[in-house]
Amino acid sequence: MEGESELRRWDELIPDALGLIFRNLPLQEVLTVIPRVCKSWSKAVAGPYCWQEIDVEEWSNRCKPDHLDRMLQSLITRSSGSLRKLCVSGLRSNMMFTFIAENAGSLQTLRLTRSEISDSVAEQIAGRLSAITFLDLSYCCNIGATALEAIGKHCKLLVGLCRNMHPLDTADKLSQDDEATVIATTMPKLKRLEMAYNVISTKGVLNIISSCSKLEFLDLRGCWDVKIDDKFMEGNFPNLKVLGPHVLDYYEINDWDDFSDYSYASEDLAWEILAGEMGDYDDDEIYNDGMYDGRLDELELRFYDGIDEDAGIYGWPPSP
């Protein structure tokens, strides 16, 4: 109709626009469904535009370590140096920590929860994480003040740090005030700090909040040795919100049971395929049959009509 904008074909969108759209979809769909729609979408998924932010944290809690390593290597390689955010849990391989650091030129947010990173590895890779602004090392039991000091010295842009622990992991520790001291002396730009269930003293906390003048939020849940008067905080640090130490949270309600599910039995078949269980394919072999020639609306009908055949493989419900 006259006055209306000309209709655009979805398969003609530029790759960076497709990447912005696909980021709103679940990761599993981006990897298993989108590449099957048309050739241009498949190329967009294979390129860097979809992988500037990679979040496999939920899936990595239930997958096998070797599958996780292969998946990360594949996705980080696709990012081609444009990776800005990475969220993953349970990494064990020193090789993978090094691989992440080697591709961290643009990395700003890094979550490595429940990973087996050590002090020595952290010292080796910290110099390559200089662009990091937010770091999550929660439930990482093999690191301490040495790792945090290396990170603080090299990550000068750091404004957020999560160092939460599970109550059972700190039950045998006498003190973590050395970590508090390192944070206070090497991370002055922090605005958000989470240290739930750390064994730190009132002196250690006061050292942090006195040195980190920009601090806006401090999580002290379960830090039972910390005794800070509310009036003192309101009078001296009015812009700082403190959570805890005495807060009834998940651990108290559930008798400190771990909330994570590490069962390998729930691992999804589609993820195994993408982690390297299925051989590489040739784009030309798939698309040269003419299936994707023509308008995208026709392509969508063909794809939808045939999806019932594969629905059972991925555990998806059949088409209505």
From TrEMBL:
Residue ranges occupied by any F-box domain in the UniProt entry: 10-52
Source organism per UniProt: Acer saccharum
InterPro entries in UniProt: F-box_dom, Leu-rich_rpt, LRR_dom_sf
Top-level taxonomic group: Eukaryota
Annotated protein name in UniProt: F-box domain-containing protein
Pfam families per record: F-box (PF00646), LRR_6 (PF13516)
